[in-house]
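Why do we care about 3D structure at all? Because function follows from shape, and shape follows, mostly, from sequence. That is the central idea of this module. The next example makes it concrete: a single protein chain, its amino acid sequence, and then its structure expressed as C-alpha cells.
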Amino acid sequence: MTLDTANLLRKHGLSITAQRLAVLRALSRRPHSSADAIAEEVRAEISVISRQAVYNALGTMVEKGLIRRIQPTGSPALYEDRVGDNHHHAICRTCGKTVDVDCAKGAAPCLTAAADAGFQIDAAEVIYWGTCPACLAETPGG
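And the structure:
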C-alpha cells in the first residue's frame, strides 16, 4: 500500500481496503480499462476478489469523484484515474486504444455551447473517433 493511495481514499471519505487499493493500482497501470479488465488485473495482484466487488469499488470511487467513468458509444464503460480537469478522449475504431486529449482552450468546460438552454455548463465530454498510428501503419498504403 502506498501512502498516497491510502491518503487519496481517506481524503474522499472511503475506508482503506485491499480491494480498493488494488483497483486504484490497476487503474494507474491501465487507464481507460473496462471493469472486466480491471478485475483481471486486480485478481493477478490479490487473487481473491469477485467481479461484483470490483464493480462496487469502481462505482463508489466514481460517485466520490476519485476516478472517472467514460461511456463510449457501443463500448463497455471505461475507467481512469485522471480527474480534476475536463479532458477528452480519442478512441481507435480498429483496436479500441483510448488516449487522453487535452482541451483546446485548457479550461473547463473548454467548449462553449451554441445554445445552452439556460444551463450553467461546467463540463463537456468529447470523444474523438479515428484510427491510431499503430493501426494506420498496418493498413496498406497507411
